[in-house]
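Forwarding these from the shared drive since the link keeps breaking.
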Amino acid sequence: MSEAQPEVSLFDHDTLVDPYAAYKTLRDQAPVHFEPAFGAYVVTRYDLIREAIRDAATYSSEFGDFLNRAGKILFEQAPPDVQQKLIDLNDRMIDIPPTMLTLDEPAHTRYRSLVARLFTGSEVRNSEPTVRQVIERNIDGLASAPKANDQLSADFMSAFAFPVPLRIIADRLGIPETSRPFFDEAATSAAAALRLSPLTPEQMVHRAQLALDLQALLVDLVEARRQQPAEDMITILANSRLEDEDRLLTHGEALSVLNQFLVAGHETTSSAFGWGMLLLCRNPGLQAEIRGDAGRIRTFVEEALRMEAPVQGLPRVVTRDTELGGVPLPAGSIVMLRFGAANRDERQFEDPDEVRIDRKKAGMQLAFGSGVHHCIGAPLARQELNLGFAALLDRFEGFRLADGANPEAEPSFILRNLPTLPIRYRPRRAPST
C-alpha cells in the first residue's frame, strides 16, 4: 500500500452532501485512512468492514465516550451564556447509561433480549394491518394535495416519509394521542442529534429543552405502565427484569433503550423512503418495472438502502494493537466503519452506482449493519418500506421531481437524510382490492 495519503476530507461541505466520489478514492487508494479532522481511521472497503464487524473483541462497540466528545465539541462552540443554559438543562436530566448500541457482549444481549420479541417474524406480521392503515392514511393525504394540469404536487418528506415511520414507532411505544404533537417534534430532534451537524446557539438550547421534556414524558409513561400495563414497548421495558440482578430497569436504562428506538424506528426509515422516492423520480422506468411485483419491490428497497445508507457509518474502539488492511492500529484508536462506502464497493456489488432490480443477494448491503449489532428493527423497517412503496405505486404514477427542484442531503457525518423532496405525480386508479 502506498504511503501517500489521498487529499480527501470527509468533512468538506460538498463531500458531506455527496460523499461517493471521495469514498471511491479512499477505497482504491487508502481503504483504511486516518482522518485528522476526526481523529479516527475511516474504513471504506466492504471486506475490511466485515472483518472488523466479525472481530468484536478487537473492534469494540463501546464508543459512548467518542459520542460524548463530539457533543462536547459542539458545546464548546456556543457562547458562554448559552453554555450555562445548556449546563442548567443538563443538570436536570437523568443520566443515560450505555445499553444496546454502545455495549459489547454479553451486556449488549442483556438489554437487547428484553425487546427482541417485539421484532420477531410473527410480531412483525401481526403489525401489518396497523402499518397498512398508517400508510393508507398518508397516501390519502398525497391524493388530496394541490393539483395543476392533472399533476399533484407535494413535499414527499413532510407528507409521507417523515410522518409514516414516526406514527408507527409512536404506536409501538404507546405514546398517548394527546402527546403526539410534542413527541413528534422531540423524537425528530433526538434523532437529529446523531447527525453531528452544526447548530445555532438557539437551536442547541431548544434541542436540550426538548430532550429534557421528552425524558419527563417517557418516565411518566414508564411509571404509568408499571401500574397499568398495555400492549406496547414501554410496558415491556417498564416491567422487564434484568435476570442476573433480579431488578427492573432504572429510568436511565429505559430511556437509553427508548432513545435508540427513536433513531432506529423512524429517522432511518424516513431517510430510506426519501432516497427511494428520489431514485424512482430519477429512474422513471423503474416505476412500471416494479409496480405490482412484491419480489421486485423487495429488491428495489434493498437497492435504495444500499445506494443511500441512512446510517453512513458508526465507530468502533480498537482494544489491542492490531492492523487492518495492512494499516497498523494502536489500541485505543477509533475506527469509523463507513457502511455507505462499503455499499458501493465494486469489489462486492457489480455496477454499484446503478439500481439493479435483478441484483442477486441484494440483502448483503450493510445499511442495517451486521453481526450482533445488526439493527433489531430492520424487519419492521423493511415491512414499512415494502408496503409503503407498493401502495404508492398502486395509487400513483409518473413520479418526478418538481420543476426546478434539486434535492440534496443535509450535511452530516453519521446520518444521511433528505430534508425536502418536492415531487409531482398523477393519480393512477383506485387502490386494488
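-- next protein --
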Amino acid sequence: MKIDFGLQAADLDRDIDRMWQLSARKIRSLEQSYPPELGAPVFTVSGRYTAKGWTDWTQGFQFGAEILQFDATGESEFLELGREHTMRHMASHLTHVGVHDHGFNNVSTYGNLRRLMLEGRIELNSRELDCYELALKVSGAVQASRWSTTVDGDGYICSFNGPHSLFCDTIRSLRSLAMSHQLGHRFLGENDQHINLLDRLLQHARTTARWNVFYGEQRDAYDVRGRVAHESIFNVNDGRYRCPSTQQGYSPFSTWTRGLAWIMAGYSEELEWLATRSDEELAPLGGRDANEQIMRRAAEAACDFYIENTPLDGIPYWDTGAPGLVHLGDYLLRPADPFNDHEPVDSSAAAIAAQGLVRFGQYLAQQKIGDGERYYQAGLTVLRTLLRSPYLSEADDHQGLLLHTVYHRPRGWDHVPPGAKVPCGESCMWGDYHLREAANYVMRLTRRMPYFTFFGPVTRHDG
C-alpha cells in the first residue's frame, strides 16, 4: 500500500463526523426492523441485516455500536439502547463455555459501559459499575477455562472447533482475560486451585505468536515474514503442534486477511495493557521484556506484511493467496477493486487493521522504540479510504455502514448481487463496529479526549 505521510488525524475530522451521522441512521433502522429475539445479526443481504448460524459472536458488536455512537456524539438515545440491550440480552454470553469470542461480545458491551462511567461520560452509579465489573470478571474466567496445554508447558484458549484448534482471531479475546485480571478476579479450578488469568493470557499470546505468525525462518516452504495462519492444529494427546489450517481462508499456506488484522489489532492493544502491569507481577511469568518482545515481534511482522501485501489504498482482498488474484494482474499497484469479477475485497479486515496500525504506531512512539510513524500513518491512510466512497454506505435503504465486507468466502455465505460474479456491496456486524471503533479512536486523538483503550482508566481499585 502507499502510505500518506502527510496525512494528519485532524484531516479526517469531517469524514468522521459524517460517518457518525450515517451511523445513527443505520442503528435506528436496525433497531426498528430487527428485534433481538431473532438472534444476532451477522451480515446484510441486499442491504438488510440477517442472522447466520455458526457461532454467536456478533451480538456484542450490535449493542456495542450503540454505546460507541453515544461515546462519539453524546446522543443519549444510543446510550439507553446500548445499556438496555446489554442488560437484557448479553447475560448468556458471559457464561458461554463453547466459544472463543468473549472479548468480542462482552468487552464491546459491558467493557465500553464501564469505561464510559469511569471516564465520567456516564453518571457514576456504584451498583451499576459493580454489575459491569462482575460481568467482566465472569467473562474472562469462562474464556480462560476453554484451555488446552502444549508440550512446551504453555497453552492456548481453544476455538469453538475443539481442544485441538487455536484460532488467530482469539488474540483479541485476550482482552476478556485482561479485564478479569485487572479487576482482581480470583479464578478457581479443581480443589480450589488458583488459576492465574495473567499467566493464561501470556501463554496464549506466546503460543499464537509462535505458531500462527510466521517470521521468514523456513518453518515450511511458504514461510514469509508476517504471514498468518488462521488456525494451528495440535495433537491433544501430547500437546504437540501438528500443522497450520484454516476455516475461512483459502489455504493453510496463504493469509486470510481478516485473521491477519486480528493479529495486528490484538497484539497492539495487549501491549498497551501490559504496560499498565507491574514488574513484580510479570517477573514470575517470564518477565516484562521477554513477553513484550514476543508480542511486539508478532505485531510488527503482521503490520509489515499487511503494508507490503495490500493494494495502494490500504484495502486488502480477502486472502493473499486467493486463486483469482492472478487474473487481476498487478493488483497491488492500484487501488483495490471491490467490483472485479474474480475475488472479493474485505473491508472489514481493513477496518480492524486500521486500528491495529494506528495503535501499534502510537505504542511504539510512547515507548520511544521502532518506526511508530510508519504504522501510524499507514493506519490513517486505510481509515481515510474506508470513510469515503465506495466503502462508506450512504444509502438510507442499506442498513450496513461499511460496504464490501466478506464473512465466509469458502462456504459461499456472502451475497453476490445480480450481475456480479463475487460478493460485493454488503456489510457485516464486525466491520461496522470496527469502523466505528477505529473512528472513535482517531477522533479522540485530535479532540483532547481520554486515550481510548478497552481497559479504560486503570483505577486504584483494579488489581
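The chain has 15 helices and nine strands. The CA atoms of residues 308 and 339 lie 22 Å apart.

- D.
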